[in-house]
Amino acid sequence: MKQNFINIDSISDVNAIFNAESPDHPLVSVIRINNPNIRKKFDNEHFIINLYSIAIKDISIKDLSYGRNKFDFQSGTMMFIKPGQVISPGDEEKGVDDDGWMLFFHPDLIRQSQLSSKINSYDFFSYDLHEALHLSNKERNELKILVDKIETEYSQNIDRHSQTVIVSTIELILNYATRYYDRQFFTRSVFNKDKVSEFEELLAAYCDSDQLQEKGIPSVQYLAEALHMSPKYLTEMLKKEAGRSAQDHIHQVLISKAKTILLSSDKSVSEIAFELGFEYPQYFSTLFKKKTQFKPSEYRSLN
Questions:
Q1: For 130, which DSSP code?
Q2: Alpha carbons 84 and 269: distance in angstroms, whole number
Q3: Most exposed residue of 47, 129, 195, 221, measured as fewest CB within 10 angstroms of its CB?
Q4: pTM here?
């Protein structure tokens, strides 16, 4: 069956796709999933979203499992979409969520605000669907109040303060989401520690094999895909559990191997660099000095 890709470039496009009322504001809209008039079924349609979107939907999961832990989150799942992502809604008629909502906003809404320069720091816009945020009742209610405020603000007479209030409320939602993700990382601690160990074993096996010379230094993207995680989520998890990013872990392993080779062989710095997967020896020397305070040749002469 041929897939149908549809671009969503504006708030008007959003309201047309969901059969919602014409937007009260050209740059932001809240779609209520319990609205009986909106379209809820999509047949083999895929949407290229060129807007930001934040959504809460009830996935009705009881005793959701993460590793050896189980959690009961029936209050909804929070998902984040950034411009350029593709989504496939599927059949939404099953298990309609009475309190679910979707917030869409155009990049132009925040372009002249401080949020424009900060929004890329909210890494959860790059998380995979299975890394979505699961909310408690209390958390969900806190967010509903903020979404209600946004809808009320753009539904009344829009004045010169409206955009500032709307943007600041969106930023508050994102800051709450950051807090809730911290909570989720904490509640998944056992599962995350297992994943950290799996990551470290994967990295060590790669660096102890011929892959370093054949394929070069492993990227965070490569390691994340091997673990069925998004690079952003992997890095955030490692920071929470081990205090270092994925890239820092990679560098630590490489520098440790470099130290061993420097002290146990008479190979040149260039030979060691190529053996460790570095394309340019100068980059290896720069990284080594950054991590140890010594050039490779200096480190060798100290021992």
A1: G
A2: 43
A3: 129
A4: 0.74
